[in-house]
Amino acid sequence: MKFGKQAAVLGLTTAMLLSAVPPVLADKAAPASDSVSSAPAASNPGTPAAEAPSDVKISKERAIELAPTFVTIPSDYKLQGISYNSRQYPNGSGAWSINYEKRQQDRYFGNISITIDAETGSLLSYYSYENDPSSPEAFPPKLDWSAAKASAEQVLGRLAPDLKGQVVYSDDYEKTSKPPLNGQIRYTVKYDREVNDVRYAQNFIQITLDGNGKLVGFERRWDTALLSFDDLSGLLTQEQAEAAMKQKLSSELSYLYLNPMGGGSAKPMLGYLLKTPMLDAKTGKLINEAGKEVTSPTTYETLTDKPLAAMPAGGRNLTKEQAVAAAAAIIQLPKGAELTDASYYEDHSDMGISSWNLSWKLPGSTERDSDYYRASIHSQTGELLNFSHDGTMMLAKLAMASGEAGKSPASIDPKDATAKAVDYVKTILPHYSDQLAIDPEWLASQASADPGGMLSIPFKRLVNGIPSDSESIQVTVAASGEIAGYWGNLRRIDVPKPGKTIDAKQATELLLAQYTLELRYYVPVDYRFYYEDNSKKARQAKPYYVLVPKQPDQFVFVDAATGEFRKRDTGAITVPGRPAATDLAGHWAQQELQLMIDYGAIDVKDGKVSPDQAITRGEMIKMLVIARNGGDYMPFLGDRMASFKDVAASSPYFSYVEQAVDANLIDKSENTFRPEDHMTRDDLAVLLVRALGYNKLAEHDSLFNLKAADAAAIKNKGQAAILLELGIMTTSDGRFQPAQEVSRAQAATTFYRYLEQRAMLRDVPIGM
């Protein structure tokens, strides 16, 4: 069953942590001791090297023999190094990591990394990267998703035949995929472990293919330690679980800082977000990723009811000497600390902070063994912005605290560390003491001592009693009890008091409709697992009902004032789910228009894309910039001055126009851009030739044979000739028709041809 009928969306959640996984990496072993490695051996695998323990079943030599039996290693790729990790996560057993590179005359052409289980000889991971411009990937790709899944199925049977019957296909990546805009396409096909017909997504096989069907990545994440699975008796039914989730889960009102469409300062807005804990399938309790019971909404308790001091006055304009004195008083520098660096910086973003950045070298530091204090001081208020004590000597102190060289750092009791952090915050930020609260979920997840040597305690800021989603601080406490670091991102801007808001229950229903509820096995996160020998440590996977986002790539919230969905980054009003146009079926440019719709390059309004409507100059620039970027990425440009007086920072085209200016796609010599004017075929020719990088060449129009009956009427003859010859633009009855306005369908089709030709026209650099 699903919550509601609305399509898709919402942010990074526990559900995503359970259903989605990181990209393939060569070797993703957790931090571990007892690691030995061989020196690089470009062409001589027999180079003497430190050896693994004698009881390892797969020797270094055998691992090197096994590597080419799993994947093809071209003859021009040479062995560069091999290392042994005694605690390969999550297996708990050792693993060999082998690296190959292709180099010719000091040029780097690619690498292959392979990880092999030192106990079983199984392939744990494979990663291939090719840096050869003479072998570009095809566009359009030779494989679509259907073909990629069929190919991955064959790879699964070849590289993990022992697990093929224990996994089920996961659509995590397919749900977020879009048709490619260039040849750098990757299809990541994931198979989750399945036990008792229930998915256990923390174990998986992941296969990555490029657009040509070549295997470029493989990862086998599979517990070989003592893992058991709880029985499925006495579970809540799907209907009971949905009812319990609706009853117990509540959206949370927060201040959200939003970046306007490309420019301007970030603005706070009240919105509802939904945290997505799991539901214990037997008890019906809400559980966080650490396996601890939580309440919804989260309740915060500030450090004090009233501030311990007044807000510091601004406008001090501290000199370097004054900033150094202020820092020394706050962080209590050790005697003999030597100031080594002092630099001044002004931040002109929405944070608007100017600061002095300072560094001190402590007595006893050498080139090899460093010991530094670093701090930033607000130049207008004298507040501490951040602080750290770092360097090799700090790490040595942590190791010494463990009591024995070579062992893990000493454990920290979270309760003691929390008390020290609270005292520290009250000392350095007394004026914020009534607005800061320790994250209660973090407290619930830290019931026992942490063995990592240092512990970072997070604090959340509350404004008008409402949590600010992007304002927080962290205090790092070392095992010795020393405050080893402080970091904060508190904004010094006015926040409006809340007005009338919709009911939280209404917001919860809207947000819950963006998820499905699925029964999953799950092992709670225990970070101590990374630091301990887990080869004999038993763990148990228990059944939970998990909220899985329908569209994990869409991040939205509910406007607390209106109940509308808005994009989490810009605050723009949106409709969850993939946009669909009712006037697209059967149109001659349906495929090309759908591609542009999927990437947001063409907007669907009132369910229609209006394919035969003339496209505007603003829409055309947006389409081109998105196409060139390979997606809908739009950087935040801060307080950048507008290049054209009719495309201000508030314009929906501002970011795209400014990117086009930076890429020299637009002539900046004029004061206006006229974004709402329609684009002619002559204008389009200039734009596309600029995008291809041939505009200077096109200005020599005598070089080209312009095959158009109306050539005399074409202003930009060289550009038209290039595009006609490449087939990106065509003639009608032998005429180019330069003054004709371009429709949305024509624009989308032309851009698709541009993408095809761009992939084929890229030259191999001289000397390759």
Features of this protein?
768 residues; alpha+beta; 3 domains; nine-stranded antiparallel β-sheet; globular; disordered N terminus
Give the secondary structure arrangement, pairings included:
Layout: H1 14-19, E1 36-37, H2 60-70, E2 78-88, E3 93-104, E4 107-117, E5 123-130, H3 145-159, E6 167-170, H4 172-176, E7 186-195, E8 198-210, E9 215-221, E10 227-229, H5 238-248, E11 252-258, E12 267-273, E13 278-280, E14 286-287, H6 320-331, E15 338-346, E16 354-361, E17 372-378, E18 384-390, H7 392-401, H8 414-428, E19 436-438, H9 440-445, E20 454-463, E21 466-478, E22 483-488, H10 504-512, E23 515-522, E24 539-549, E25 556-559, E26 565-567, H11 590-598, H12 617-629, H13 654-662, H14 681-692, H15 695-698, H16 717-726, H17 744-761
Commentary on this structure:
The chain is of the alpha+beta class. Helices cover 23% and strands 25% of the residues. The chain has 17 helices and 26 strands. It has a 9-stranded antiparallel β-sheet with strand order 1-2-3-4-5-9-8-7-6. It has an 8-stranded antiparallel β-sheet with strand order 15-16-17-18-22-21-20-19. Strands 10, 13, 14, 23 and 24 form a 5-stranded mixed β-sheet that branches. It is globular.
**How many discrete domains?**
3
Helical coverage, percent range: 10-25%
Strand content: 15-25%
Give the overall shape, derived from the CA principal axes.
globular
Give average pLDDT, whole number. 83
| Structural class designation | alpha+beta
The main sheet comes to:
9 strands, antiparallel
In DSSP terms (H or I, runs of 4 or more residues), the helix count works out at 17
Distance between the termini: 57 Å
Alpha carbon gyration radius: 30 Å
Strand order of the largest sheet: 1-2-3-4-5-9-8-7-6
Which residues form runs of ≥5 with pLDDT under 50?
Answer: 1-50, 764-768
Multimeric state of these chains?
single chain
Count of DSSP strands: 26
